[in-house]
Amino acid sequence: MKKLSAEVLDALGNDVEVPAYDRATVTPGIVHFGVGGFHRAHQAMYLDRLMSDGKALDWGIVGVGVLPQDRRMYDVLSAQDHLYTLVIKHPDGTLEPRVIGSIVDYLFAPDDREAVLTRMVDPATRIVSLTITEGGYHVNQVTGELDASDPALAADLEPGATPGSAFGFVVEALRRRREAGVPPFTVMSCDNIPGNGHVARKMLVAFARLKDPALADWIAAEVRFPNCMVDRITPVTTDADRAALAERFGVEDGWPVVCEPFTQWVLEDDFGGVRPPYEDVGVQIVEDVEPYELMKLRLLNASHQALAYLGYLAGYRYAHEVCQDELFVEFLLGYMDNEGTPTLPAVPGVDLDRYKHQLIERFANPEVRDTLARLCAESSDRIPKWLLPVVREQLAAGREITRSVLVVASWARYAEAVDEQGEPIEVVDRLRDKLVERARHNREDPLEFISDPDLFGDLAADERFAAPYTAALKSLHEIGARATLEAPSAESI
């Protein structure tokens, strides 16, 4: 058994791939906010591949944590010389471990905020990247404008405040670079948001305008915000994952990352200066990300929501269980074919029919063990961005919305916080209290849940949505999720 560190890399067995480069020669070039499982399975992995080819050695990643819970990541990575193991889980049970070395430092912002700013202002930092979750952009779901009511943002807007939020750090670092005559870094959002670069630009400029209008104008004119689409299913690491890595490969890692074999990154070539040669390791560099982005959000991400609540209510707890059930597979393909796909533009180089069936295969991978609880979390940030745009486009075109409506109804039923066996459901959402309170009125006032204009706009007033939604919710209450899909009326579903 070897505790992961730089010292033991040469002693690891041949079954564990290790960095094929001298990490002592790697220098920082990227500051990343939100070092979680996905970033470590995706963006950091691509850079590690480049470095193993002798490239991008001046693009090492400095991670930054701003939330109290990020201290654990700081502690684990610091104890392991910022190394960690990425374990690819193949459907046949094969594990493919690789030690990733592209993260060269990790700063826990609450301990030393100036250290974070110093690193961000350094001219060597040419990209600041973000995986801060959909909710981290503080977007009002209906108006699309900045919601500055978050306490962290409000604190950063106080005169003379030292930044505490990701937005605060980015804007303050850009202010200091401007004053010092240092060219701005590129801000690269890697979150699952339509037009993530555009959203990051709009929200950060709006935030900056509340502090310094002239600075906001400069950011709008000078800072680049490329859009990108990212894709790799990365479930939460479990103790069983740690144990398997230790028992099968002799590696003791405090926080390995597990993921599926599939990975995709489509990136707009819109950088303020030089960038890593990502295309050399399979990243698709394109002029327009939107077709790929919409494909992923409305087929993969929306399908995750389509299987999550209904599957959980039906008694399943993992995505692969749902996607090995033909009833649910038919429902998912029906949504993708008849509701999601009609809203998509042409996607260059992609066979959509193959892509959709590949999604089912990926979801059904029994080794990934992606929990439905993870997919059900933070729904108030996901449904409005991933599924409701499909509903609105289908309504505008007079097309089918039956399956999408059932997904929204299943979310409302799930938010009641009690499953079909009367067992409690742990609803995880930044708006949990409001959602659960509204959902508790589902039976006597079925439109209560969707009457929140901040999430649903005016859909509750649209009879074309409200009527089938009410019927779907009633069916979920009376006969349950599985029977709702099996019922004769489900032929229209």
TrEMBL record:
Q: Name one GO molecular function term.
A: mannitol-1-phosphate 5-dehydrogenase activity
**Class of the enzyme per the UniProt entry, highest EC level:** oxidoreductase
Keywords of the record: NAD, Oxidoreductase
InterPro entries linked to this entry: 6-PGluconate_DH-like_C_sf, 6PGD_dom2, Mannitol_DH, Mannitol_DH/Oxidoreductase, Mannitol_DH_C, Mannitol_DH_CS, Mannitol_DH_N, NAD(P)-bd_dom_sf
Asked if the keyword Phosphoprotein belongs to this entry, the reply reads no
**Boundaries of each Mannitol dehydrogenase N-terminal domain copy?**
29-276
Q: List its EC numbers.
A: 1.1.1.17
**Catalysed reactions, semicolon-separated:** D-mannitol 1-phosphate + NAD(+) = beta-D-fructose 6-phosphate + NADH + H(+)
The record's Pfam families line, in alphabetical order, gives: Mannitol_dh, Mannitol_dh_C
Q: A biological process (GO) annotation for this entry?
A: mannitol metabolic process
Question: Domain of life of the organism in this record?
Answer: Bacteria
Identify the residues that the record assigns to the Mannitol dehydrogenase C-terminal domain, covering every copy.
288-476
Q: Which family does it belong to?
A: Belongs to the mannitol dehydrogenase family. UxuB subfamily.
Record-given protein name:
Mannitol-1-phosphate 5-dehydrogenase
Species of origin: Kribbella solani
